[in-house]
Amino acid sequence: MTTSTTIRMFVLTLLVLGLLTGCGQTATPASNPTTPSRSQGAMVPVLALSELAPGPNRIAVGVLQDGSPINDPELSLPMRFFYLDGDNSAEVRSESTAVYRGEGLPFGLYVGYATFDQPGAWGVEITLPQAEGEPIVSRLRLDVLAQPQVPAVGMAAIPTNNLTIRDQPDLTRLTSDARPDADLYQMTISEAIAAGQPFVVAFSTPGYCQTAVCAPNQMVLKQLKDQYKGSINFIHVEVYAYPFGENFQAQRFVPSMRDWKLRTEPWTFLVDANGIIQARYEGGLTFAELEPALAQLVAGEPITPPSE
Predict the structure, then answer these.
(1) pLDDT digit string (tens) for 28-39?
(2) Looking at residue 39, what is its pLDDT?
(3) What range(s) does the Thioredoxin domain occupy (predicted)?
(4) Is the dihedral of CA 50, 61, 207, 157 positive or negative?
(5) How confident is the model at residue 307 (pLDDT cuts 50, 70, 90)?
(6) Mean pLDDT (whole number) for 189-205
(7) What is the DSSP string of 145-162?
(8) Which of 52, 98, 113, 267 sits 20 to 30 Å CA-CA off 167?
(9) What is d(CA 308, CA 303) in angstroms, rounded to the nearest whole number?
């Protein structure tokens, strides 16, 4: 369930439906309305994540209805979490509500948060409204790793020398972004850690994104970069080296991806002035979710997820 194939399964559904036309642009359903009718079939949740670790975690969920992903800003999903390896697996350990975080993304994404106090088998109970009758409760297993492969919240950011504009002045060979912003390629992660200032680092490939959210994510980063200029450094690491298409086909990641032990994309990390990761985001991001987190980051406050 919480393997790298989970998010691929959701994306594969989108691809089959013809919703994704490439990462460089935002695709929307051709046959479904933005807000689907609740008179249709049952809704089914799909977890859009690849790894969970002890501590705070972002729980991203897609929803299918009649086999198609929905994009309903009014939908929210109550979630309850259980520790299945404990003596009382029926005890509710925490609750959250996954709210709409699909603005600008090619499909509806619903995001809640959970804190797991120990590794092992966990369960999530997701309540989904239905066209008729009572809501349906869907139960899914969550595997929380004892030792996360991807750097987790509370860990030190990994110093690495990603390519910058000093290494390659031609931005078209530095990033697959169709509209590159030179400000995102001014420093390495190693330099950002040494600078003693908060920073955001995004590992993504806007031109070859397998989840179709890299380009929308990049637009959010560019907007926030201007808002927090001088307070937070922003770094984009292109997942594949130039020539991008050739390395994408061969699935050859740049060294910084290997240094951070990333096997999927996109990933975005918020790092404080002491070089400690304060938040991590897998997959699609929106301004509404990220901007409050950056306000807390620059203020030196703990990052708590927005409630709405």
Answers:
(1) 332 333 344 445
(2) 54
(3) 162-299
(4) negative
(5) low
(6) 98
(7) -SS-SS--TTSBPPP---
(8) 267
(9) 15
